[in-house]
Design brief:
The complex is a heterotrimer of chains A (299), B (283) and C (381).
Chain A (H helix, E strand, L loop, with lengths): L1 H12 L10 H28 L3 E2 L5 E2 L5 H5 L3 H35 L4 H9 L6 H11 L5 H9 L11 H12 L1 H13 L2 H10 L3 H12 L1 H17 L2 H6 L7 H12 L2 H32 L1
Antiparallel strand pairs in A: 1-2
Helix pairs in contact in A: 1-12, 2-15, 4-8, 4-9, 4-12, 9-12, 10-11, 12-15, 14-15
Chain B lengths: L1 H15 L3 H25 L15 H8 L1 H34 L3 H11 L6 H15 L5 H25 L4 H8 L4 H30 L2 H6 L7 H10 L5 H26 L6 H6 L2
Helix pairs in contact in B: 2-12, 3-12, 4-7, 4-9, 7-9, 8-9, 9-12
Chain C lengths: L9 H6 L5 H11 L7 H9 L11 E6 L5 H11 L3 E6 L2 H9 L6 E2 L3 H9 L14 H4 L19 E13 L22 E3 L3 H11 L9 H14 L3 E4 L3 H6 L5 E5 H10 L7 E4 L7 E6 L8 H11 L2 H11 L8 H8 L24 H16 L1
Parallel strand pairs in C: 1-2, 1-3, 5-6, 5-7
Antiparallel strand pairs in C: 4-7, 4-8, 4-9
Helix pairs in contact in C: 8-9, 9-15, 13-14
Classes of the chains: A mainly alpha (299), B mainly alpha (283), C alpha/beta (381).
Chain lengths: 299, 283, 381
């Protein structure tokens, strides 16, 4: 699916290849979903943008306005720090997912044999069981007096390790929650890849490792880019992982937004934070689309 | 000569043997993936109220789950949300995919881009936007608002999956059908829809699973109706958690195994080689 | 304020001259004024005659998770043949936000200052005490809560439980406790200390440590509070209101905790109760109470009254004290609790102190915003 996302994104920004078919049917088909998206998505995003220029009045109500006060408030270094921290966490999540996910996709795609489908299913199943329950199971296992630390103490090697409430735990939670979205697109592009390429590469390069980096990796760049997109975006806006596994200094922008809407009572400030998050993503998407188009031209 | 021989040896090894490292790594990966799952399933049968000490086999948490009206009503709410969101987004998403694939006008292309934005928007943004939208309209938050938000989020997923399938199918088939006297609508119903059925099934299963497990959107848009299961689990995890949650998790796991098996088997029953799983994974 | 927290004033809207067509179209159909918000029904029901205690539908119930004995809930369902639709919150601010957003619950359990806030904002309705058969359990026997500070004559609420905020720690890990809030900066437990994830509690704790008023909104005071809370971060494991689980998991050696949760943990979960201490810091400890309210927009106020009555019935009071381990504010409550907490003098909750300066009070909008900002910046730092 993920590959298709990225194909479609490229499609959307480039000229169509197909010749138009002149029937009214398609126009009729387009209308209901288009109207739905305008009413429920575009206009609600517009409200967020508009409210970000508003303020909270004396009785604690959020009202529209036209001031940059919220954005000025966001110039405080504290907010910048949170934005940078979120970006660092999201980048770490993406890189770790790529490094861990690639060998898995590779093994299943090229050495899965007749078990390929079963292995993919096996990989996907856990991701369809509640994310929250799985996170909770982890936090129980990794607690200071949880099963893992008990086992570690039994070995006598260590007094126990503090896993939870650390930046590492937040990133691990993010990786655990989204790595499947890295594995699947890479798997798909490996599947599509012509294995004759690898054979040819073996004649050209000396070691399998060299072949891997010179032939296989470049051939699957599209899949990797798809995976990066699907892992990075949700990670940047996440607040659950930091909430359940984080410590005193692991607040992410998602937590800040959530706090403004559910605790802090400053919805206009929360809206401004949301707009900042969207802008950050927009910048990312511009670079991303350029990269995808380059890959498409090359292959 | 020596290097030649070495290359030969290396080449031989890599062709016949699997890369042991990658296989071992994948096995370890799967193991870690399943550790919490095993813990959830195992401790759902624990006779003790502990998540670290196993006291013996018991079904008490299942009994508690099946008698816990609050949990059951949350489960029903989540099933309802997932089911309605699935049906509505399949219909709307398929319409969108068909239109985008067959129309090349400028407005259609813009719509196409816009329809994909939800895919690249973090859920918290969608959640905040939906919350403000419903509050601004004076709509009370309820299961209805959750469903509306989930449909909006799902349409693009369906559109992308179905479009992927459509683009590999030539529209000449439709034209042939029309040459044989079909109206455009008949061509759609008799030719196009049956062809993309596996994609529809795949998209449906995926949406059902995603929406059923979705937490963020539900958290932002839920009202006082029975809370969706994910929202209830979240508040229990943050406060005092009952081991009955493990029983809930085990049941969800069973359902997902069932759904995924269906997605593998149903297309085969319909006489197709490509399984829905391929479509989900993009293969 | 009876409107939901977000409502759109036409003049504000027009002043911010935006050309977004879709949004403008929406303005025409509901964004334009306060009349389209749920406030209409809320103010109408406040003015309407008070509800009668009889079943008028299922009970929509809003409380902390697990803050009521399940048999008390199931007993209510059986007795009145209704369902209980349960929702939970994990902090008062979140609870208030949901109710302000127009979510309609039949009963909710806010903390004292939130009762006052909701009363002033017209979010809760007056309760006809003559409808409550067990009213004599709560009122008229010399209880302070006949006329509490947050709700004159308890017209809009029925008192439920009470607690202090203090420090829980384990003796095997911490031997250098000073008996003051400084213990939340204890070197021995560095990295194993939790602070409650509630703005009032965190700011109040820091204020007491600094010798300031727990309710201060003075900018200089707030700046000091912010600094001291940020200085605490290296000592902390996390901010969390889930004190029971954090104590049980072994992750917490020292926990900023509520007295009732500590006793609940000792009674139900702790494997080594004698290893644990609940300390009431000598530099002052916050005292808080909560009360049941019926929101103004409650769909079933009749069933809600029956619930208020049910929860104060003596046998249910006893069940609940045993389950949640908080003293309940009815005639029989203090004795049952005293017996339970007999071994822990620090867990005593003295009702006479409810007027003391360590009770969390409300602020005007500006001061509240200043306090919110401090808490946001502390957590973000």
């Amino acid at each position: 699916m993920s590959l298709q996302v990225e194909d479609a994104l490229v499609d959307a920004t480039t000229e169509k290849r197909r010749s138009p078919t002149r029937t009214r049917l398609w126009g009729v088909l387009l209308a209901p979903p288009a109207i739905w998206m305008i009413v429920f998505f575009i206009s609600s995003i517009a409200i967020v943008v508009m409210l970000s220029f508003g303020h909270v009045n004396d009785v604690g109500k959020a009202v529209f306005g036209f001031s940059l006060d919220n954005y000025k408030a966001l110039a405080d270094p504290v907010y910048l720090k949170v934005l940078l921290r979120s970006a660092m966490f999201a980048i770490a999540t993406t890189v770790i997912s790529l490094v861990l996910g690639y060998p898995v996709a590779y093994t299943i795609a090229l050495h899965g044999g007749k078990y390929k489908n079963a292995l993919v299913a096996f990989l996907v199943i856990p991701f369809f069981a509640s994310y929250l329950i799985r996170m909770y199971a982890w936090s129980t296992l990794l607690a200071d007096e949880g099963l893992v630390n008990q086992l570690l103490r039994d070995t006598g090697l260590t007094e126990g390790i503090r896993f939870l409430n650390t930046p590492g735990a937040v990133v691990a939670g993010l990786v655990y929650g989204s790595i499947v979205f890295m594995v699947l697109p890479i798997y798909a592009s490996l599947e599509r890849m012509d294995t004759a390429l690898i054979e040819a590469g073996k004649d050209l390069y000396h070691s399998p490792l060299q072949t891997f980096f010179a032939v296989t990796v470049p051939a699957t760049r599209a899949g990797m880019l798809g995976g990066v997109l699907l892992v990075f975006l949700p990670a940047l806006g996440d607040f659950v992982s930091a909430q359940l596994l984080g410590g005193p200094s692991t607040y992410m922008i998602g937590n800040l937004i959530q706090q403004q809407f559910f605790e802090g009572h400053d919805q206009p400030l929360g809206s401004a934070l949301t707009v900042v998050l969207m802008l950050a993503l927009l910048v990312f998407m511009v670079f991303y689309l350029r990269a995808t188009q380059r890959v498409n031209r090359e292959t | 000569m020596a290097t030649d021989a070495m290359t030969q040896a290396r080449r031989g090894r890599s062709v016949e043997g699997k890369p042991k490292f990658a296989v071992a790594f994948t096995a370890l990966f799967m193991f870690i993936l399943y550790v919490p799952i095993v813990v959830v399933v195992l401790f759902s049968f624990n006779s003790k109220k502990s998540l670290s000490v196993f006291g013996g086999f018991s079904t008490r948490w299942y009994q508690q789950f099946f008698h816990d009206e609050a949990l059951l009503s949350s489960l029903r709410a989540s099933l309802l949300i997932a089911f309605v969101a699935m049906l509505a987004s399949i219909v709307l998403g398929t319409m969108l995919a068909l239109a985008l694939e067959r129309v090349s006008s400028r407005p259609a292309r813009i719509t196409g881009t816009v329809a994909l934005i939800p895919l690249v928007t973090p859920e918290i943004v969608t959640g905040v936007a939906a919350l403000l939208f419903f509050a601004g309209l004076g709509m009370k938050l309820s299961l209805v608002t959750v469903i509306l938000a989930e449909i909006t989020f799902s349409i693009s997923y369906v559109a992308v999956i179905v479009r992927g399938r459509l683009s590999s199918m030539s529209d000449e088939v439709e034209e042939a059908a029309r040459d044989l006297g079909c109206t455009p609508f008949q061509a759609l119903r008799l030719v196009t829809i049956p062809t993309i059925l596996p994609a529809l099934i795949a998209a449906g299963l995926l949406i059902f699973a995603l929406v059923f497990d979705d937490f963020v959107l539900a958290f932002f848009t839920t009202g006082v109706d029975p809370q969706p299961l994910s929202v209830r689990i979240y508040s229990e995890i943050r406060m005092t958690i009952s081991p009955a949650i493990n029983a809930v998790g085990t049941c969800m796991l069973l359902v997902s195994v069932l759904l995924i098996s269906l997605s593998l088997i149903v297309p085969r029953l319909l006489g197709r080689k490509d399984s829905s799983l391929d479509l989900i994974s993009g293969g | 304020m009876t409107e939901p927290s977000l409502s759109f004033n036409r003049r504000d809207f027009l002043r911010g001259s935006f050309g977004v067509g879709a949004a403008a179209a929406l303005a025409a159909c509901g964004f334009s004024g306060d009349s389209a918000t749920p406030s209409t029904s809320a103010s109408a029901s406040a003015a309407a005659p008070m509800a009668q205690a009889k079943v008028d539908g299922d009970l929509v119930y809003y409380n902390w998770a697990d803050y009521c004995d399940p048999t008390v809930l199931s007993g209510f369902k059986e007795k009145y043949g209704v369902n209980i639709i349960e929702a939970n919150y994990d902090g008062y601010a979140g609870m208030l936000a949901k109710i302000q957003a127009g979510n309609a619950y039949d009963v909710a359990l806010p903390g004292a200052r939130y009762v006052e806030l909701m009363r002033k904002q017209g979010l809760i309705q007056k309760i006809d005490k003559s409808q409550l058969k067990n009213a004599d359990q709560l009122f008229g026997w010399g209880s302070y809560f006949d006329n509490p500070w947050y709700d004159p004559n308890s017209d809009y609420s029925t008192p439920f439980s009470m607690w202090t905020t203090g420090i829980a720690y384990r003796k095997d890990k911490v031997t250098t406790a000073s008996g003051t809030w400084q213990d939340l900066w204890n070197e021995q437990a560095k990295g194993h200390i939790y602070v409650l994830d509630e703005d009032d509690e965190a700011l109040g704790m820091a204020a007491l440590k600094l010798g300031l008023d727990v309710n201060t909104a003075n900018p200089d005071d707030l700046a000091k509070i912010k600094d001291v809370l940020i200085s605490q971060k290296p000592y902390l494991r996390a901010y969390s209101t889930d004190d029971i689980n954090n104590l049980a998991s072994g992750n917490a050696w020292i926990h900023h905790a509520w007295s009732g949760d500590f006793l609940n943990f000792i009674n139900n979960t702790a494997t080594d109760p004698e290893n644990w201490v609940y300390e009431l810091p000598t530099d002052g400890s916050p005292l808080n109470s909560d009360a049941w309210v019926i929101p103004a927009n409650a769909p079933h106020p009749g069933t809600a009254l029956l619930w208020l009555d049910w929860i104060m019935q003596p046998d249910n009071v006893e069940k609940n004290i045993n389950y949640i381990a908080y003293p309940l504010l009815s005639k029989s409550g203090p004795d049952i609790y005293a017996k339970m907490a007999a071994n822990y003098p620090s867990l005593e909750v003295d009702v006479s102190k409810v007027v003391n300066p360590t009770v969390y009070k409300n602020h005007n909008a500006t001061d509240q915003a200043a306090r919110n900002a401090v808490w946001t910046e502390v957590k973000a730092a």
